[in-house]
Structure formats: C-alpha cells, structure tokens
C-alpha cells in the first residue's frame, strides 16, 4: 500500500467556506447566481473552472475530483454518471474520424461495443490485441494510431499489460494511452506514474463500495482532462450528481481500509480454490501460478478481490454449484460489501484444446473468508457429493 493513502482519504484542511463542516456539504443546485453581470461575464469566460452550472462544475463533485486526483497523483480528474459515461465521453472527445485505436481484446464488453460503434459510424479504425506481450502493440502501430486503450488486469481472465513498456512505446510514437484501472483502484495501481496518460475507473465498484450508486472518473494531465471536460463531459452531459458525489466521498473514506480486506480475503480464497481437485486453474494475478505474476508484483501494490477459475465441470453443473452457495449472491458487478458469483463459458482464446471447461467469476466481499470457504465447500458437496 502506498504510504499516506489512509491519511489522504481521511484528512482535509478546515474549510472556512462551509462553517468548518468536516464533510463536504451537498450542493443541491443546478445553477449559481452572481452578484452582478461583470462577475457573471468573468465566470462565463472560464466555464471549465468556474461554478456556473452543475453540468459543468458543482462544489461537491469538485471536492471528490480533487481527492481522486490526489490519490492518482494526477493534475486533474472528472467524475461522470457511470463508468461507461467516463469511457464513452473520453473516447468520443479524443478520437476523430480516421484515427486508429489499439485496444486489448479482453476489455470490458460495453467498452468494446462503444469502440465498434465508433468504427462503424465514424470510421475510427480499431484493432484488438491480446496485450500480454509488448510486441502485440508494437506490431499494430500505424501512422494514424491515436490511442492505445488498456485494461489491466482485465476483468474476465485477469491478464495484465506492461504499463511502463506500453507507455514508453506510445510516447515514442506520439500515441495517447488510457487505462481502465477499476480492479486495482489507486490504492494498488497508479498508472500515471508509469507514464500512462489517462486512468479511468468505474466508481460503481470499489470507490462506492456499498452497491448503492453508479459513477465513473477519468484522471490525468490538465490539458487532456480539459479537452474531455469541454466535449465528452459537458456535451454528453453524463455528469455525476452532487448526491452521488456525497455517497462516493463517504465510500472514499474507507477505500484503502476496505481494499486491504479485499486484498487478503481474495488471496485466501484464490489459494483455497487453486488446491481444489475440481479446479483446473485460477486466474488471479496475485498467485505465483499466474503467468504474469512477476509483472503483477512490479506494477501492483496489492490485489483486487475479483478473480475467475476454470473447471472441467460443465457450465450446467457449475450453475448448480452457484445455486447451492448461501453467501455468494448471483449477479453482475462487484466492488461492494457482498460476495458475488457468475458462471460463463471460458473465453474463446483458451478453447484451443477442444474440450470446453467452464469458468466462474468470484467476487470476494467483506464477509469472513472462512465463512465463504465453508460455503464453497458445502456447495461442492451439494453438487458432487463426498
Ligand atoms: C463495471 C465496469 C465498467 C463500467 O462501469 P459502469 O459504472 O457500470 O458504467 C467499466 N470497466 C470495468 C472493468 C467494469 O467492471
């Protein structure tokens, strides 16, 4: 864990503007009025910084953005209504017709769908690469490549990309880099320090931490964030509400604390799964068996608690196992207090062997890990007997 993280989220200067309130008040207003037209005109000339209208700036949201920028060691951050609003808004702001994008093929599904839309409608060229090797990116570079889009680790197979290597390659070629870092949070991965240009998160996951609101954020250099703010943010209007920002601020106070718990519980259960005779492999970057474990040790300070495992059982059997679980709920998303499970097919890239193992994704919440292990065991017994 980065030194000072707990202090960064817990500590604020006394804010004399708000009667010394220790939490940021919710500014529940759409517009801001001015004493005279001169100050209004002045603010209108600086809409990116001034509080004029809450689709542009709102003090509650700005407070949160400042905190995240601090955690990511970024010049600036912008919060959106959801992770997808941050992704779509940023991509739309930065890409033009004729640009080429290299994206990891395991990127979040809707991110790929959005890039495919840009490709079909606006002639943005997209190339998907595995991304585990630096050469995957190098080989696909073209004169009009504008952006390399990363997600590390990915949220299905938990593959990593070499952030320092990709950033150096991209800088040399004048290409922008952007990463979805939702899994690691700024507690465990600070991509800007490796030279990546923009980092984004689905705040719906660990930042919120309580499965009660949606949000997204993008952080990076001021010029890039301002360009995104001017276009993808203001014009799409998918902004975070002050109410949501207040919930996110509350989540942020305990983010490093919760991440420590997720880190350790996730590893305990991943190690337990790896020993189970019915499990072929566990996809968790923190396990020494993960093919990119050395890279994980280099660029991550800790681990998220979302991982997957593969088994020879049919998907049908695995779904029966999921049904028998009492503490893991069946559902999408992750990052909250509650453990979750979903069952699916092994991604095509691993299906070369001809047999068709199934895969389950586990999210380890804040419950006692021994309770969760007991739950997993009783569910196996339920499905296969002893
Ligand atoms: C959930 C998720 C998103 C999208 O975030 P929303 O807040 O649901 O829009 C993006 N990337 C990853 C890795 C996610 O898990």
UniProtKB/TrEMBL annotation:
InterPro entries: Cys/Met-Metab_PyrdxlP-dep_enz (IPR000277), PyrdxlP-dep_Trfase (IPR015424), PyrdxlP-dep_Trfase_major (IPR015421), PyrdxlP-dep_Trfase_small (IPR015422). The keyword Lipid metabolism does not apply. Its cofactor is pyridoxal 5'-phosphate. This is Cystathionine beta-lyase. Belongs to the trans-sulfuration enzymes family. CDD domains: CGS_like. Keywords: Pyridoxal phosphate. The lineage of its organism: Bacteria, Bacillati, Bacillota, Bacilli, Bacillales. The keyword RNA-binding does not apply.
């Amino acid at each position: 864990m980065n030194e000072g993280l707990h202090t960064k989220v817990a500590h604020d200067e006394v804010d004399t503007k708000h009667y010394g309130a220790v939490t940021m008040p919710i500014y529940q207003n759409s517009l801001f009025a001015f004493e005279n037209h001169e100050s209004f005109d002045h603010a209108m000339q600086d809409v990116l910084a001034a509080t004029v209208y809450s689709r542009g700036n709102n003090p509650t949201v700005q407070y949160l953005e400042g905190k995240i920028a601090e955690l990511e060691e970024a010049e600036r951050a912008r919060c959106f209504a959801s992770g997808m609003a941050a992704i779509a808004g940023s991509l739309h702001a930065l890409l033009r017709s004729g640009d080429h994008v290299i994206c990891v093929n395991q990127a979040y599904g809707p991110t790929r769908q959005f890039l495919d839309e840009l490709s079909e409608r606006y002639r943005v060229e997209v190339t998907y690469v595995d991304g585990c090797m630096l050469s995957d990116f190098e080989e696909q570079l073209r004169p009009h490549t504008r952006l390399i889009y990363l997600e590390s680790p990915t949220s299905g197979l938990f593959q990593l990309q070499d952030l320092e290597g990709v950033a150096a390659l991209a800088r040399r070629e004048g290409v922008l880099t952007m990463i979805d870092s939702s899994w690691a949070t700024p507690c465990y991965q600070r991509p800007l320090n490796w030279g990546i240009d923009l980092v984004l998160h689905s705040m719906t996951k660990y930042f919120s931490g309580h499965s009660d609101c949606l949000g997204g954020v993008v952080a990076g250099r001021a010029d890039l964030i301002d360009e995104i703010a001017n276009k993808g943010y203001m014009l799409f209007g998918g902004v975070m509400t002050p109410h949501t920002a207040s919930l996110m601020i509350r989540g942020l106070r305990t983010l490093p604390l919760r991440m420590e718990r997720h880190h350790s519980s996730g590893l305990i259960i991943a190690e337990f799964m790896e020993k189970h005779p019915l499990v072929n492999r566990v996809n968790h970057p923190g396990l020494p068996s993960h093919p990119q474990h050395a890279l994980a040790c280099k660029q991550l300070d800790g681990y998220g608690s979302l991982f997957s495992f593969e088994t020879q059982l049919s998907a049908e059997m695995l779904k029966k196992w999921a049904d028998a679980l009492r503490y893991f709920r069946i559902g999408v998303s992750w990052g909250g207090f509650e453990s979750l499970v979903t069952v699916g097919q092994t991604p095509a890239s691993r299906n070369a062997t001809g047999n068709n193992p199934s895969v389950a994704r586990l999210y380890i919440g804040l419950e006692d890990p021994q309770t969760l292990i007991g739950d997993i065991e009783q569910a196996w017994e339920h499905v296969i007997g002893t």
